[in-house]
Automatic annotation (TrEMBL):
<keyword id="KW-0564">Palmitate</keyword>
<keyword id="KW-1003">Cell membrane</keyword>
<comment type="similarity">
    <text>Belongs to the EcnA/EcnB lipoprotein family.</text>
</comment>
<feature type="signal peptide">
    <location>
        <begin position="1"/>
        <end position="20"/>
    </location>
</feature>
<dbReference type="InterPro" id="IPR012556">
    <property type="entry name" value="Entericidin"/>
</dbReference>
<keyword id="KW-0732">Signal</keyword>
<keyword id="KW-0449">Lipoprotein</keyword>
<dbReference type="Pfam" id="PF08085">
    <property type="entry name" value="Entericidin"/>
</dbReference>
<protein>
    <submittedName>
        <fullName>Entericidin A/B family lipoprotein</fullName>
    </submittedName>
</protein>
<keyword id="KW-0472">Membrane</keyword>
Length: 49
């Protein structure tokens, strides 16, 4: 019984993760946006020095 509950919980978690980004292109855009934010923050810190 516990194994079934655990298996269902894992599957629901996997489905939630898979539906977070519908396509590989969507993941790429998310990563690119994150990279741009890090770059902007680094430039701001550099300017303050």
């Amino acid at each position: 019984m516990l194994k079934r509950v655990l298996a269902v919980a894992i599957m629901l978690g996997m489905f939630g993760t898979l539906t977070a980004c519908n396509t590989v292109a969507g993941v790429g855009k998310d990563v690119q946006t994150g990279g741009e934010k890090v770059k902007d923050a680094a430039e701001d810190v550099q300017k303050k020095m």
